[in-house]
From TrEMBL:
<dbReference type="InterPro" id="IPR000644">
    <property type="entry name" value="CBS_dom"/>
</dbReference>
<dbReference type="InterPro" id="IPR004800">
    <property type="entry name" value="KdsD/KpsF-type"/>
</dbReference>
<feature type="domain" description="SIS">
    <location>
        <begin position="60"/>
        <end position="206"/>
    </location>
</feature>
<feature type="site" description="Catalytically relevant">
    <location>
        <position position="81"/>
    </location>
</feature>
<keyword id="KW-0129">CBS domain</keyword>
<dbReference type="GO" id="GO:1901135">
    <property type="term" value="P:carbohydrate derivative metabolic process"/>
</dbReference>
<dbReference type="GO" id="GO:0005975">
    <property type="term" value="P:carbohydrate metabolic process"/>
</dbReference>
<feature type="site" description="Catalytically relevant">
    <location>
        <position position="133"/>
    </location>
</feature>
<dbReference type="GO" id="GO:0016853">
    <property type="term" value="F:isomerase activity"/>
</dbReference>
<dbReference type="InterPro" id="IPR046348">
    <property type="entry name" value="SIS_dom_sf"/>
</dbReference>
<dbReference type="Pfam" id="PF00571">
    <property type="entry name" value="CBS"/>
</dbReference>
<dbReference type="Pfam" id="PF01380">
    <property type="entry name" value="SIS"/>
</dbReference>
<keyword id="KW-0677">Repeat</keyword>
<feature type="domain" description="CBS">
    <location>
        <begin position="300"/>
        <end position="353"/>
    </location>
</feature>
<feature type="site" description="Catalytically relevant">
    <location>
        <position position="215"/>
    </location>
</feature>
<comment type="similarity">
    <text>Belongs to the SIS family. GutQ/KpsF subfamily.</text>
</comment>
<feature type="site" description="Catalytically relevant">
    <location>
        <position position="174"/>
    </location>
</feature>
Length: 353
């Protein structure tokens, strides 16, 4: 069980209320009360699932699919809490590959309705189906030739009678004790809209790669988009040395490039091996003053793990972390076995992977 923050522990119970002399004292909520509320909300949601007309929902989903497939835009609108839900559903559709936008009913009547065409569909969310702002919008949108769909929780409403299609979202009651605050009606609106969004996603066969392309700043998108070549260090950033270079002559190169290693190459830029700062410590411990005479080639690790520029960055990270022992970097070799870069674990993490 979670515990209260320290600053709340000493508060008196019941808590004094300062809103009114006649107001009842505020009491801390106990666990059974909270659990009962969640169970009640679960029951209201179950009522929605049990009574939802799937034929209406299927017709709604296919209408959105047809309009979007023909180059139209799926517009959503609503007022108040229903408006916030409409915005969220629209954004979900966009992220899943369906052209969509939210149209403010107020702004629409002051110029924004110009965005509507006869190729579009406008979905109007309203619990009561009698929202004044939406009723004023309907004839104006109809004049543009836009297909109109109302989504309500009322069997009969003015919106239902004035739109081309209506979807009824069964609402047992609001969780609010007064049956007023829209906390259950908005929940079923969200569940309905997001489920339809996934149905459209599957109908359009949206690939994981296409999904990632719509989320380039997120970790999922980066893992499916970024390749080693997008993140690797190259050219002047590389800590390079030759096989015959003395170890002590390369300390500046080892420490200044921020890679924790030296990349040992020959004249043709073929990778011979790597020498890390860990190798330096072990060599110093084992050789003592003899390290002044040792070359990098004598002590480097030959045939190290490598990767290619076209490898997905997330695959390079997995290779770094693979047994028998994790490494902090991978030299990047092209098809001609020429060293072209280095990718580091720090660089991958900094890129958001």
């Amino acid at each position: 069980m979670g515990s209260l923050p320290a600053f709340l522990i000493d508060l008196p119970s019941p808590l004094a209320s300062s809103s009114s002399d006649d107001a009842k004292p505020v009491e801390l909520i106990d666990e059974p009360t909270l659990l009962n509320l969640f169970k009640a909300q679960q029951g209201h949601l179950n009522y929605f699932f049990q009574h939802l007309d799937l034929s209406q929902t299927l017709a709604f989903t296919n209408a959105l699919l047809r309009f979007s497939s023909l180059g139209g835009t799926v517009f959503f609108t609503g007022v108040g809490k229903s408006g916030f839900v409409a915005q969220k559903i629209s954004q979900t559709l966009v992220s899943l590959g369906t052209r969509s936008a939210f149209l403010s009913p107020v702004d629409a009547l002051h110029g924004d309705i110009g965005i509507l065409t006869n190729r579009d569909v406008l979905v109007l969310f309203s619990k009561s189906g009698n929202t004044e702002e939406l009723l004023r919008l309907v004839p104006c949108a109809r004049a543009k030739g836009t297909f109109l769909i109302s989504v309500t929780s009322a069997d009969e409403s003015l919106l239902k009678g004035s739109c081309d299609m209506n979807v009824y979202l069964p609402l047992e009651r609001e969780l609010c004790p007064f049956d007023l605050a829209p906390v259950t009606s908005t929940a079923i609106q969200m569940v309905f809209g997001d489920t339809v969004a996934i149905a459209l996603m599957e109908a359009k066969h949206l690939s994981k790669e296409a999904y990632a392309a719509n989320h380039p700043a997120g970790r999922i998108g980066k893992s499916l988009i970024f390749k080693v070549k997008d993140i690797m260090k190259k050219q002047q950033e590389l800590p390079l040395c030759r096989e015959g270079d003395l170890i002590m002559d390369q300390l500046v190169e080892l420490s200044s490039k921020g890679c924790g290693c030296l990349l040992v190459i020959n004249g043709a830029y073929h990778l011979i091996g790597t020498f890390t700062d860990g190798d330096l410590r072990r060599t110093l411990k084992a050789s003592g003053e003899g390290i002044f005479k040792l070359t990098v080639g004598e002590m480097c690790i030959r045939n190290p793990r490598t990767t290619s520029p076209e490898t997905m960055a997330v695959e390079a990270m997995r290779k770094m972390e693979s047994p028998p022992s994790p490494v902090q970097f991978l030299p990047v070799i092209n098809d001609e076995n020429i060293l072209v870069g280095i990718v580091t674990l720090h660089g991958l993490v900094s890129a958001g992977l």
